[in-house]
Design goal:
globular; 6 strands; 6-stranded antiparallel beta sheet; about 140 residues; about 40% strand; single chain
């Protein structure tokens, strides 16, 4: 298991934009499973939506990307920056609300030196809430 302290050693993201609380499974170069605990204190709930808080779908995809960043780091791209290139086939199936625990899963579709492609799903309990495919670029330089 990788806790949030170790995640913050790997990813540059910090509150309020760190969307990953822990990694519970990892197979280097293949797949990872992580957890995002959704609390009512999340800053985006103030405006999305007052009286009916729903986690924005793009932030669920961002959480999947954070998990894929940890997976890439643990698969040999340590010390390098990872950036989104594209998001495809994103679908949002059910709303995520305060109190939910989102189980994130990412699989490597292709992992090369500089370009990585992932497929990810997000579940609350046994319900699929979101899915997407996305591509990331790994580079030694900040953009």
């Amino acid at each position: 298991m990788i806790d949030v302290k170790e995640i913050m050693k790997v990813l540059p993201h910090r509150y309020p934009f760190l969307m990953l609380d822990r990694v519970v499974e990892i197979e280097e170069g293949k797949r990872a499973v992580g957890i995002k605990n959704v609390t009512v204190n999340e800053p985006f709930f103030q405006g999305h939506f007052p009286g009916n808080p729903i986690m924005p779908g793009v932030l669920i995809v961002e959480a999947l990307a954070h998990l894929s960043g940890v997976l890439a780091f643990k698969s040999g791209v340590a010390g390098r920056a990872t950036y989104f290139l594209s998001i495809e086939k994103a679908k949002f199936r059910k709303p995520v609300v305060p109190g939910d625990q989102v189980r994130l899963e990412v699989n490597v579709l292709r992992g090369r030196e500089t370009i990585w492609r992932f497929a990810g799903t997000a579940h609350v309990g046994d319900k699929l809430v979101a899915e997407a495919e996305f591509t990331a670029m790994v580079t030694d330089k900040e953009l």
